[in-house]
Design brief:
Elements: E1 9-12, H1 18-29, E2 33-38, H2 41-55, E3 59-63, H3 69-77, E4 84-87, H4 102-130, E5 133-138, H5 151-171, E6 176-183, H6 189-202, H7 206-216, H8 225-235, E7 247-250
Parallel strand pairs: 1-2, 1-4, 2-3, 4-5, 5-6, 6-7
The structure holds NADP nicotinamide-adenine-dinucleotide phosphate (NAP).
């Protein structure tokens, strides 16, 4: 299927590895030019080089913190125009909510709620003018099925989800869709670090923590960043113009509900 996004410009945040990288690589595979971002320059440049080499699209790499206003301005300024926006940032740390400070909460809200909202605010009106826009927010399955030790994530991402539910209905008549993609367990560095915390808390090995998690997933495996990316690329396609305001799980069947 030709997704019809060849030559479009996509901004993919937090994309030197993991889920953001999977989205960037998949969009590039469909011919979209990219602005990608992460904080660590060397890893980001390497990701950009690899994508350019494999797909031949233009890739601009901007090493900066996307949760800071200056970082967002730098990233957006690097794109001739933004047709596709994939918002992403590192997740907040796990922990006991009794130990979270106000600063912890503000950082989580900044990173996982207000950063996507600011990025959307800066780009959505031009998308509406051009009658094409695709916005995908990488959130978490924790929005549907909260994970107790990820209280900061559950809270901040649910705030974003509520906001998007309203906004997405106001932009779709101009062919600008906004959806949230909810990863279950994908074997990235983020997941590996969660296993390390869990193993320490439970007094078990990291391997045992990972193996128990793997077995609990109906698919009996962790997700792969490229299968996440391919779903994202489809949501950014011309064909996906009638899908908006959705919270789409990609979790190997892990969420146990009927709906
Ligand atoms: P990952 O493999 O650790 O990759 C995170 C990426 O984000 C890296 O490129 C990192 O590069 C970049 N990054 C982190 N903080 C940033 C910032 N402030 N500004 C710019 N770039 C930043 O993580 P992942 O598994 O792909 O997770 C992506 C998101 O999905 C996270 O919010 C995570 O909580 C969420 N999620 C993941 C899973 C899963 O199973 N993997 C499940 C549910 C939710 P630098 O460190 O160099 O900046």
């Amino acid at each position: 299927m030709d997704l019809g996004i060849k030559g479009k410009w996509a901004v993919v945040c937090a994309a030197s590895k993991g889920l953001g990288y999977g989205c960037a690589r998949s969009l590039a595979g469909e011919g979209a030019n990219l602005v990608i971002n992460a904080r660590t320059d060397a890893a980001l440049q390497e990701a950009a080089r690899k994508i350019r080499e494999e797909t031949g699209v233009e890739v601009v790499a901007v090493a900066t913190d996307i949760t800071k206003e200056q970082g967002r301005s730098q990233v957006l300024a690097a794109a001739p125009q933004v047709d596709i926006l994939v918002t992403n940032a590192g997740g907040p740390p796990p922990g006991d909510f009794r130990k979270f400070t106000r600063d912890d909460w503000i950082a989580a809200l900044d990173g996982n709620m207000l950063t996507p909202i600011e990025l959307i605010k800066a780009t959505v009106d031009k998308m509406i003018e051009r009658k094409f826009g695709r916005i995908v927010n990488i959130t978490s399955s924790a929005v549907k099925a909260p994970i107790d030790i990820l209280g900061l994530s559950n809270g901040a991402r649910s705030g974003l989800t509520g906001f998007i539910a309203g906004l997405s209905r106001t932009t779709v008549s101009a062919n600008v869709t906004i959806n949230n993609l909810l990863p279950g367990r994908f074997l990235t560095d983020r997941l590996r670090s969660n296993f390390a915390v869990e193993a320490k808390n439970k007094g078990i090995s990291v391997e045992d923590a990972a193996e128990a998690a793997r077995r609990s997933i109906p698919a009996k495996r962790f997700g792969d960043e490229m299968e996440f990316g391919q779903y994202c690329a489809w949501l950014c396609s011309q064909q996906a113009g009638y899908v908006t305001g959705q919270n789409l799980l990609i979790d190997g069947g892990n969420y146990p509900g009927t709906f």
